[in-house]
Amino acid sequence: MRVRAAVVQAAPAAFDRARTLDKLDRLVAEAARAGAEIAVFPEAFVSGYPKGLDFGAVVGRRTREGRDQFRRYLEAAVEVVWGFGDGSTLPVLDTRLGRVGAVICWENYMPLLRMAMYSKGVQLYCAPTADDRETWLPTMRHIALEGRCFVLSACQVLRRSDMPADIPNALGDAPQTLLMRGGSCIIDPAGKVLAGPAFEEEAILSAELDLDEIARGKYDLDVVGHYARPDVFQLSVNERPLKPVVPER
């Protein structure tokens, strides 16, 4: 089975949900016209990763201006800004394109979480991120090789001009200051780079994925199969929904 996949490297209209959703709609349509059946967007694309902002926070003190900046950021969110999930929020979903799962940014450095995803048979491993360092590409290649899955990673290319002009930014105030340089990529189950990485410009990267490569790769390495050693190692995953407040009945 073959799937045409894309990763979208772009900047949102930060703090502006409506304009960001309009841009997302245009980019999805562009990717679809190019044949993409699945498109991965960067972490916190709607409506902006607040890189370089401190919201007036230092240890032990918050400014009123920072609180108001946070209020604006919260109001631009789709539902919530940041929060904690639980094991019930880590699914791998059966789709007509294959088994799809998502691990965000530095969650990809949590080996037990990766193992949980591999155990669910993830085939299209989506990795939205805000990490634009040179170490990100080898991380994505390692995960693809380790899990024998396709990895689709998208990162923003973000400039100071994409952020609200009236909110100070610790990384610089010149409009063309580069806050996030991208680095989006698509990797195959052997660790081969199929597309990217792209830097310092908006881009839609795409590649044709041959899902048969997953089985070919697992022939000699399957970390939840013949390489698992359950006689020595086991991972227990709590997938029950957990709430911070549970009324007594």
Describe this structure as you would to a colleague:
With 249 residues, the protein is an alpha/beta fold. The protein has a single domain, classed as Carbon-nitrogen hydrolase (Nitrilase/N-carbamoyl-D-aminoacid amidohydrolase), CATH 3.60.110. It is 23% helix and 26% strand. It has helices at residues 17-33, 64-75, 111-119, 136-147, 212-218; strands spanning 2-9, 38-40, 57-58, 61-62, 92-95, 98-102, 124-129, 150-155, 157-159, 178-187, 193-199, 203-210. Strands 5, 6, 7, 8, 9, 10 and 11 form a 7-stranded mixed β-sheet that branches. Strands 2-1-12 form a 3-stranded mixed β-sheet. A two-stranded antiparallel sheet has the order 3-4. Helix 4 (136-147) links the parallel strand 7 and strand 8 (150-155). The longest helix has 17 residues, at 17-33. The protein starts with a strand and ends in a 31-residue tail after the last helix. The mean pLDDT is 95.
